[in-house]
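Q: Could you fold this chain for me?
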Amino acid sequence: LFLKLPSDSFKYLGWCDIEEHGVQGNQLRCPRVREGPSEEELFFRKEEHTLKKRKQVTDTEKWEKRLQENWENCAELNLSFQDLGDLYQVENFKRILRRLIRVEKLWLVDNSLTDLSAIRLPRCRELNVNKNHFTSFKQLPKIPQIQHLSLAENNITTLSGISDFRHTPLESLILRRNPCEFQERYRQLVFSNLPNLKMLDGIPKLPEDCSPPEISFFYRMCTIL
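A: Sure. Below is the predicted structure, expressed as structure tokens.
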């Protein structure tokens, strides 16, 4: 006999929907912000019994929820592994990102993200977007104060657009397991576009990373001989 767990009726609820608690968004380090399925999806899944637990939300309740979320005061936040399976969930996710005006450290790992170019994170110093579906630096959010950026395991094929970070305080960049890593003179090209960069893929800037291409090539030829 299949019996539902006691928490089954709450599986699609966000923390804001739980009554009688005063937890604010900036008090959560790893909140689950993925919204539950739509009413149509629940009906398709034959889980329409959960619809009875949903009520019409008034404008006052929506405003109270917005204040409770309090994303504007988050300084450090982990929104990884959100399982954004539907478009309306992606839009809700971006709605929250647009409110992170004070966040300094942000993790968005493994969320199947493709384009955050319309998002601005004015105070973000550390951003981890590993294991997403970015194909270009142009698809990243606006991060003028970035110091540490991790883009491992995306699908960035070229270094086009990387110079947009030239005038940021970027010190550390991780591009491991992206197609651009196999580009000829990869490290030299990255450092030539980002002269203030100190570390690439966990390796500090080396003298040969600053050498002109023809000198570096001649040096390698001599070493082989």
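A (continued): The longest helix spans residues 213-224.
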